[in-house]
């Protein structure tokens, strides 16, 4: 991806946090010379640098064992109006843009047929995503014969990640007063990812939280 130095994010803990907070990824591969894009949750194992998930047995990914792939994790994003920049009102030399954060993870796909591995993964995934529920659902809550049927219909996938790229486009190429104007504009609009994007901008620069 196009990655100006001002927007490059290399801190492992920041990249890890985004992938964990936004696990629903776009997984890109090539088959017969054509690009494929699939959308699925992927769990990030930072210690072993592995992404893990599962797909239906009929999914094209199930036929691509060993293929190079790219997983894209999209964080908060939003439109930025030039009217939010104090500098615009002085010179007019500003245009609209879009702020966003993404992480790209590259590696090779491994298709896993091991039912025990897959059962363990599904158990960990459900335990993680059900953790905030008053009565968390467990894989063991479903009838065993039903679980066995479902397991036969899916395969596990694992990506050994050999490269991570983070792009955090948060107005770092603007002076502090323009960045503060964007934070204030996002908070006034307060739609979609605006508040989360404003928080990321505050964390990325020397801005007060009362802008």
From TrEMBL:
It holds the Pfam family FMN_bind_2. Transmembrane segments: none annotated. It comes from the Bacteria. InterPro entries: Split_barrel_FMN-bd, TR_PAI2-type. This is Transcriptional regulator. It comes from Aerosticca soli. The lineage of its organism: Bacteria, Pseudomonadati, Pseudomonadota, Gammaproteobacteria, Lysobacterales.
């Amino acid at each position: 991806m196009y990655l100006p130095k001002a927007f490059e994010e290399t801190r492992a803990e920041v990249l890890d946090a985004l992938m964990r907070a936004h696990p629903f990824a776009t997984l890109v591969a090539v088959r017969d010379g054509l690009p494929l894009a699939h959308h699925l949750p992927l769990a990030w194992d930072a210690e072993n640098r592995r992404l893990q998930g599962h797909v239906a047995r009929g999914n094209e990914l199930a036929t691509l064992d060993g293929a190079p792939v790219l997983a894209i994790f999209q964080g908060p994003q939003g439109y930025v109006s030039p009217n939010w920049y104090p500098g615009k009102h002085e010179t007019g030399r500003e245009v609209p843009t879009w702020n966003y954060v993404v992480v790209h993870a590259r590696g090779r796909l491994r298709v896993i047929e091991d039912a025990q591995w897959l059962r363990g993964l599904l158990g960990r995934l459900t335990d993680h995503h059900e953790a905030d529920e008053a009565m968390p659902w467990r894989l063991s809550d479903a009838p065993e014969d039903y679980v066995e049927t479902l397991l036969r219909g899916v395969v596990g996938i694992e990506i050994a990640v050999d490269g991570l790229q983070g792009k955090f486009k948060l107005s770092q190429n603007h002076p502090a007063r323009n960045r503060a104007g964007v934070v204030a504009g996002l908070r006034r609009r307060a739609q979609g990812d605006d508040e989360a994007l404003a928080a990321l901008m505050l964390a990325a620069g020397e801005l007060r939280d009362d802008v």
